[in-house]
Amino acid sequence: MNILKWGCALATTLILGGQMLSAESPLPPTETREEPAVRLVLPLGIPTGLPQRITVRGENISKATTARISGLLPTPTLRLLGGGIASTGAVGDLVGVGTEWMDLEVLLPEGTLRGTNGSLVLSSAGGDSLPFPVFVAPGGITAEREPNDALDMPQDLPKEGLVRGTIANASDLDLYRIDLRSGQTLRAELWSARLGAPLDGALGLMDRRGTVLLVNDDGEDTGRDPVLEFQAGSNGTFLIRVSGGVPHYGDANAYLLDVKVLP
């Protein structure tokens, strides 16, 4: 597949294949007019300033003639890297979140607004996919480091930015260590279900001995994605625990952990 054209304005458009079919173009009698359906985009979160390879999973992906990210300024750019029918060896254990895949290289310029203002849309002769949320992370992303499931081996949280991790199975948990001063307020938020992942996440806060201080399974305004808020009564080291109910999708049970500390 070749890149034939780039678009502008609020969306960068990538033309896929040898010819873009317009709505008026006649289709071969044997072709079914079916729009693409985006089920998942991995990895979750796209940092700004550096090219990021993403894998788009769903149905009828091979029918797509254009790909675009709308709603973002400055204008992002996309480059097609490949695509095909999903297989376990190629893209992990993702059965259940789409049988076809497409790899794109995305570059979000510095200054792109953080959050989920952007949407990925694939178009075919049969129509457009529903907009799929794209999370912009201008502060950078730190990868989860395994093992981090025991009290004596938690991962230190970065001073800024997000942590990208995966809950591999129902018994898996990830621990992250943070130091708080008396009076400081911690706010921890999980981004997963809102970005299309099947994980039903949970957050817990523990002291360094493992005593559970606070637990949240569903946020008040965030659906299945939990949110924790905690004000430290004294100086100390605390552990944030990420866990959750998972289906059998493996690598798809991804999350972004966003932690802020207020004075």
Feature tags:
Jelly Rolls, five-stranded mixed β-sheet, Immunoglobulin-like, six-stranded mixed β-sheet, 263 residues, mainly beta
Give me the count of strands: 20
Domains counted in the coordinates: how many? 2
Report the average pLDDT across residues: 86
Would you tell me which CATH topology of the largest domain applies?
A: Immunoglobulin-like
Task: Work out the helix count.
Answer: 1
Shape designation: elongated
- What is the first-to-last residue Cα distance? 52 Å
Uncertain runs: 1-11, 17-30
Largest sheet: 6 strands, mixed
Kindly report the oligomeric state of this protein: single chain
Q: What structural class do helix, strand and pairing data support?
A: mainly beta
CATH architecture of the largest domain: Sandwich
- Radius of gyration from the alpha-carbon trace, in angstroms: 20 Å
- Please trace the helix and strand order, writing H or E for each element: EEEEEEHEEEEEEEEEEEEEE
Secondary structure: helix percent: under 10%
Q: Proportion of β residues? A: over 45%
* CATH class annotation of the largest domain: Mainly Beta
User: Superfamily at the CATH H level of the largest domain?
Assistant: Immunoglobulins
Give a topology summary:
Layout: E1 12-15, E2 37-42, E3 46-47, E4 52-59, E5 66-70, E6 77-85, H1 88-91, E7 100-107, E8 115-124, E9 127-128, E10 132-137, E11 141-143, E12 155-156, E13 162-166, E14 174-180, E15 185-191, E16 200-207, E17 212-216, E18 227-231, E19 236-245, E20 254-262
Parallel strand pairs: 3-10, 11-13, 12-14
Antiparallel strand pairs: 1-5, 2-4, 4-7, 5-8, 6-7, 8-9, 8-10, 13-20, 14-19, 15-18, 15-20, 16-17, 16-19
